[in-house]
Amino acid sequence: MSIDLTAASITEAVQKTFEGAEDERVKELFIRLVQHLHDFTREVRLTGEEWFTAMDFLERVGKTCTPTRQEFVLLSDILGLSVLVDLIHHPGGGSVTDSTLLGPFYVEGRPTAQNGSDISGEVEGIPLFFNGRVLDPDGNPVAGAKVDTWHSDGEGFYDVQMQDKLHGRLAMRALLTTDDEGRFWYRSVAPRYYPVPNDGPCGEILRAANRSPMRPEHLHFRLHAEGFEPLITMLVRSDDPYVERDAVFGVRRSLVVDFVHHDAGDTAPDGTRMGEPFQTVERTFVLDHREH
Amino acid sequence: MSIDLTAASITEAVQKTFEGAEDERVKELFIRLVQHLHDFTREVRLTGEEWFTAMDFLERVGKTCTPTRQEFVLLSDILGLSVLVDLIHHPGGGSVTDSTLLGPFYVEGRPTAQNGSDISGEVEGIPLFFNGRVLDPDGNPVAGAKVDTWHSDGEGFYDVQMQDKLHGRLAMRALLTTDDEGRFWYRSVAPRYYPVPNDGPCGEILRAANRSPMRPEHLHFRLHAEGFEPLITMLVRSDDPYVERDAVFGVRRSLVVDFVHHDAGDTAPDGTRMGEPFQTVERTFVLDHREH
Description:
2 copies of one chain form a homodimer. The first copy, chain A, has helices at residues 10-16, 24-43, 48-64, 71-78, 81-89, 201-208, and strands spanning 127-135, 146-151, 173-177, 183-189, 194-195, 214-215, 218-224, 231-237, 256-257, 260-262, 278-286. Chain A is globular. The first copy, chain A, folds into 2 domains: 1-46, no CATH class; 94-196 and 211-286, Aromatic compound dioxygenase (Protocatechuate 3,4-Dioxygenase, subunit A). Chain A is built from 6 helices and 11 strands. In chain A, the strands form 3 sheets. A 5-stranded mixed β-sheet of chain A has the order 3-2-7-8-9, with no helix packed on it. A 4-stranded mixed β-sheet of chain A has the order 4-1-11-10, with no helix packed on it. Chain A is α+β, with helices and mostly antiparallel strands.
């Protein structure tokens, strides 16, 4: 019965219309969603004008989405929802490496690379040498683990954001494989802090709230190995100015690492005597055994 | 400080980022929105897969919006939000006529019409004669009130949904003006119950919930008069099969009226002896004085 409704009784009336759902989870999700959407609307006494602004905003968010830009994911990110979903299922703080956001710049078609190779894709920047190790919870090396890594250039741009300049090539990303000791290593260029895309509807929210759009400098990693839970994580530069105020709430202290500066003339991890300053980063990742 | 967050502490961290908003209302709206979005996400322990499905759904809702189809308004309608916003500010039950949804079919460029004219725009159907009166709360006629009316045809379609057939003309809608006694009247064709557009993302929700997409037969009205609050309302056919279960929760009992059947040979309100069956509807609208 959806007649003679009041601002109080309409919520139960709407919830009842979801009771016929065959999928119990669909029923639960919509009944709780309606409760919170209605409670919010009543609490703030949302006006017709504000409602109209919201409808127009959401339409523009949808229209901003393209295959290489997901403005709804960004909206979820800046409202802390994306990280919340991750935190609910991966609270972290245990012996395995904490997970965090995948972010919008992961690309399926990334090239494979040999350990020790330069994955910068001819992008210029401060040389960066990364040495990683993958272990199980008991400290045993995980050999043959597949490690995706991707990051920005020294101006904060990912390859997919400068396809004109790169003539359609991918760069600063690769799929590596750990050796018998669980090690993987590569050379690239140092990344940089950068703003989330703020020329669209989400930028309006950030400006209205006087919020910074910046994410601190970081390297992304995605690890898969037979018998282990997949891990999506990232490492954040410890002395970055935005490390304590990531625009999308994706930094965990356990994932903050030193990007070590070396002077020209020092020897790189691969034995090269470098003619220019460079950086090194080291990190061990601990994967969890797959639940069965 | 947005580091070392947990599924519990992230909400306050996100809310704090809105405290720098200059507009107090923006601050309030986002702080409460974040609270409810996060509470919902925690309560149902939303999974990453469900979150991804939601992001994809919202993008598709945005992409479905066109100048003549507003899928986010429809989403708001089927979740009862649109009516809730109206009920909060217009609880009704007083001496003035209750308001309800504007709906998606109001068009700014509607033609003006003289009282008594046929506004059907050459659309075929059962003749319908409407007689209305506009009064103030004391029962005095409101002369010179502007009355918009619009409705579907006998198959449930509005003019904007059959522009090919109508060669771009508008039909079954007009702007009328009340006479010195507050009266307005017109001839048209009887409308019909119809489904909300269910071939898009919102249709997926209705089907997943086994919900009817139908709205009962109704006539829309929008009234403006100098010194009075504008009124958006509609009249719903009392013997319609969907009167108690409108898909968008827009029916109020006070707005249910009889669409009276007359046989061929009876005399219409305009004095015409009709050669076919027809319907008549009468209604008085009471406008509220404008608040100052």
